[in-house]
Write a structure and sequence with these properties.
The protein has 364 residues and is α/β, with parallel strands linked by helices.
Length: 364
Amino acid sequence: MSRATARLVLSDGTTFDGEAAGFLPDEGVSTGELVFNTAMSGYQEVLTDPSYAGQVVAFTYPHIGNYGVTPLDEESATPACRGLVVRDLAARPSSWRSVGPLEGFLVQHRIPAITGVDTRRLTRLLRDRGAVGCAFGTAARDALRAAAASAATTDGQDLASGVSCTEAYSLGDGPLTVVAVDYGIKTTIVRELAARFRVTVVPATTTADELRAMSPDGLFLSNGPGDPAALGAQRDVIAQLLGEVPVFGICLGQQVLGEALGASTYKLPFGHHGSNHPVRHEATGRIEVTAQNHNYAVAVDSLPAGARVTHVNLNDGVVEGFCAPEQRAFCVQYHPEAGPGPHDARYLFDVFAALCAGGSMDGL
């Protein structure tokens, strides 16, 4: 396949040569916050994860697109990421599940991409410098440099409101009722909840009184994109409900819960993105290999009295989970639903089910 020459330019002017792929914008420039993901497979789930809103995803694994795409692997109806960077974009899918190549999916969903990039060098730079703004495409070098220098990052941005549902919807037929606040919820999370509860997914703008009126047995706080510090209204809603109903949060849900309890959040240098992150379960010492996608974390020294750290990232010591027994609330920063990734942590949905049924936090 003949491709147009393209470049990827970081906010500091560092330039990588490549070739244009996927959707080609008329102006020849795409921008976003550049992060790297270490997953070897699951690229479709990653690209359709709403938590990547505002971001350009660079895969460290060199061959992406090998097995094609299928609607069964989509984590949302409309991808929110700003673009894709790869070393080699496979043209011919090899899986019997595939309904087409990844590039066709990119074109269909208007996702720009650049292939042929030295992603090993790129990853080393991002590891050392942190997530940065970038621009890529077929435009002239000067235009790309200017766009990269002014590219928006996720700092201070409420991106959750842009990917949340606009109307509530329900599914599942379990014995208990859970309300899931959608900050950018993944389809696999909804499936895990619906397998255990009657779940109603509501917009991120739902008020505390509206949530109370639904009389749920439990409240779930979903994953999502952007800076948790920009979600003051959502934090205040959860703060009003703490102690009234059991709460379980994942990813951005952990950050919102942490801030609702009075803790603070901060941005990690380059975030955790991949499906191979080791996490220690503090109560047992057991190691879980986990799927992760977050740029922000809860500061351990800001957790209030009574809160207890339950999970820790073995790569850098970041808090990956904590609980607040008095408020019957717990959360994890990683993704126990594992879409994609290992299933080591799916037991947490059962812990939530037991808590909603009046049980204890055994298992944490």
